[in-house]
Amino acid sequence: MNLNRRAFLKQAGMLTAGALVAPHLLKAAPGLPAPGLQLYTVRTLLEKDLKGTLQKIAAIGYKNMESAAGSKGHYYGLKPKEFTSMLADMGMKLRSSHVMVGSAGPKMPFATLQNDMQKLVDMAAESGQEYLTCAYLMPDERKTLDQYKSHIALFNKTDEACKKAGIKFAYHNHDFEFETLEGQVPYNLLLSQTKAKMELDLYWAVKSGNEPVSLFKKYPGRFEMWHVKDMDKTEKKFFTEVGNGVINFKPIFAAAKTAGLKYYYVEQDQTPGNPLDSITTSYKNLTKILA
Questions:
Q1: What is the model's pLDDT at position 107?
Q2: Once rounded to an integer, what is the mean pLDDT over residues 59-64?
Q3: What are phi and psi of 132, to 5 degrees?
Q4: Each residue of 16-39: pLDDT tens digit?
Q5: Rg (CA), the chain
Q6: Alpha-carbon distance 188 to 46, whole Å?
Q7: Which CATH number is 60's domain given?
Q8: Contact by Cβ (8 Å): 151, 137
Q9: Are the beta carbons of 240 and 268 closer than 8 angstroms?
């Protein structure tokens, strides 16, 4: 997810988000999981037609899903088990769900870690997913190191609650965590002062000037999930379909074992047209990248 989440939440506090080509099913490369999708990419389509959109995603070949909260909650208006049952009927599994801290900024129309942490943990456990993942820190939640210290305390409590429920807690980055704040790099604090698994967003890591493989080597086994998104070739360095940009994914995937990779999800926060067209292109290109 990107900074547009801020506008997205302000506008409605909700999740709303071509023709589908014949599927080119991607067999997981040796040692790699099957391809997944962060459902934030198709948010407007899910809002209009949940089942139909999921069926189209399954037809492309995606297997592992990560949900994102919206107007109908974290499971798109269904109970956790109902949602995972719907996915299972289509040959897909929910592996993670994105949640927000909710300590500052606009009031959110769904449960947050600050106000309903145990509820989020219980729903995640009920769904059968493996991870509960902090998606994003709002601008008003990341102005000072003291705020990060408060988040770290909350994350550690969440991590303990997740362990008791048989799931894992994870943190998803953007680029701001890598910016020096009061003489320290917040991402380093998150790594050193929590036991959270890291969901490394490859786009934001690269855009911040970091090399994913170097992070894997420095903190081996910590990066159990990735967001796979590409950076276009323009001066803006905007989102684009996987394989259509400048990020070299081959050496990153070659270091999957070092990273501790369990799941990866294609995500494209904004698409030039129908999101289904973009995720189809990303899927096809991944076939070539991982061949």
A1: 84
A2: 98
A3: -115, 120
A4: 333 343 344 445 556 799 999 999
A5: 18
A6: 35
A7: 3.20.20.150
A8: yes
A9: yes
